[in-house]
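agent> step 3/5: call structure_predict on target 'Tyrosine--tRNA ligase' (Secundilactobacillus similis DSM 23365 = JCM 2765).
agent> reason: downstream docking stage needs a structural representation; sequence fetched in step 2, passing through unchanged.
tool.input:
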Amino acid sequence: MTILDELKWRGAINQQTDEAGLTELVKEKAVGLYVGIDPTGDSMHIGHLIPFMILKRFQLAGHRPYIIIGGGTGSIGDPSGKKSERVLQSMEQVHHNEAAITAQMERLFGQDGSFKIVNNYDWLSKISLLDFLRDYGKLFNVNNMLAKEVVASRLEVGISFTEFTYQILQSVDFLHLFQKEDVQLQVGGADQWGNITAGIDLIHKIEGNEAKAYGLTIPLMLKADGTKFGKTAGGAVWLDAEKTTPYEFYQFWLNQDDRDVVKYLKYFTFLTEDEINDLAKQVETHPEKREAQRRLAQEVTAFVHGDEAVTEAENISKALFSGDVAELSVSEIEQGFKNMPSVDITAEKRNIVEWLVDVTSIEPSRRQAREDVNNGAIRINGEKVTDVEAEIDPSNHFDGKFVIVRRGKKRYFLARVK
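tool.output (status=ok):
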């Protein structure tokens, strides 16, 4: 099975410019290929991850992946998928984003020298306006550019000349890597088809029609309910652990619909066909066990954040479900309680009834607090407290940084010692 056969089985190919030619190429040699990403933010989200999973599969199959960090194109703005003009970022912000995304790529692709990160600012910034117009602009037909979906979709609301030229700059990227690094394949999302084919056309015009350059796009990822993949009620799911904690990341994958989980196993994990088929049977026969979702969460979280993050996420999940939170680490508490009700407190010792009412406002009144304590409805740091004369000492657990309260079966509160 070639890498292309595997991608077909995984449902990861949308369009190819020359399927027969690319099939022969991957059999003949270790192919140079690239995916580009503009540094429009300081982290990728899981939507960005989709084409880079394809790049990673090529890497594991022995091919030569290149990643373009678009320091040049990112300062211009890609009109793809946008209904209005992008707001230009300062170059300082662009450079900050470049560094952050580069660090994420190095975690995903390793540091063994089997892939290369390049920045298109290094060559695009050296092209003068006159050279751009004479050497490249002359080779692009405006009528053809207007017909590209990425531009045509913006004609009613308008598109600036700056964003209109984006496809030329991306084409120059492909030409540059073709000439300097023997890169023959560009991979991108379905919305990049016009830009990719424009790059191949440019290579053919300069290097001749026999030049072997190819394009491959991946399908638009939609959930079973027809909505766009990767969005939650809280917004995007980020690869940056500060924006989306590894626990939240793990939970996102764990909570996937039975109708989607097998597709996501094919797209986002490196499990074999037999392993995924076994998990698919589990979904059919024992969906309540959610084995496929759990394996999906483990695999993707390990790929993005490492094995230790999986262990932490599972510790948090187990502790919150059982109520046994006493063994959680400070880091695990920060992750697991990030979006739960919280209050700042001092390290002062107080009677439990006073503390629940006057210090934290967890209970609405002292009468209610006494009743809940007497009924065993209050747990402090995982321990049931039934004595209304008990004392809360914030320094007793979690390095004196937190007090965890559970009221009833599921309502958690976090008190942070300031």
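agent> step 4/5: record observation. The domain at 342-417 is CATH 3.10.290.10 (Structural Genomics Hypothetical 15.5 Kd Protein In mrcA-pckA Intergenic Region; Chain A).
agent> proceeding.
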